[in-house]
Amino acid sequence: MRNKRHNLISARKRKNYTQEQLGALINKGKTVISNWETGYATPALDDALQVAQILEEDVYNLFLDVKVQTSHI
After folding, report:
1. Residue 73 belongs to a domain
2. CATH number, domain at 55?
């Protein structure tokens, strides 16, 4: 089965965003996006939802096998 983080990479590329451009849209650096795509880090829930909205994808399709953290308020 294809790894979900590859879905994130594919969705980003379909929208013609670089990691830097996508990061800028959610006020994150290129390294953060890269870390999500490689599985080195996991996005907070609010970040995952923002990315899904920007990429016009279902959040579950992008991050289902990536543990999504909830923000601590």
Report:
1. no
2. 1.10.260.40
pTM over 0.70: yes
CA–CA gap between residue 12 and residue 52 (Å, rounded): 10
Number of domains in the chain: 1
Give the length of the chain: 73
Q: Is 27 helix (H, G, I), strand (E, B) or coil?
A: coil
Tokens (6 digits) for 63: 């991050």
Q: What average pLDDT does this structure show over 37-46?
A: 92
Q: What does the block give as tokens for 50? A: 């923002």
Distance CA(68)–CA(44), nearest Å, equals 6
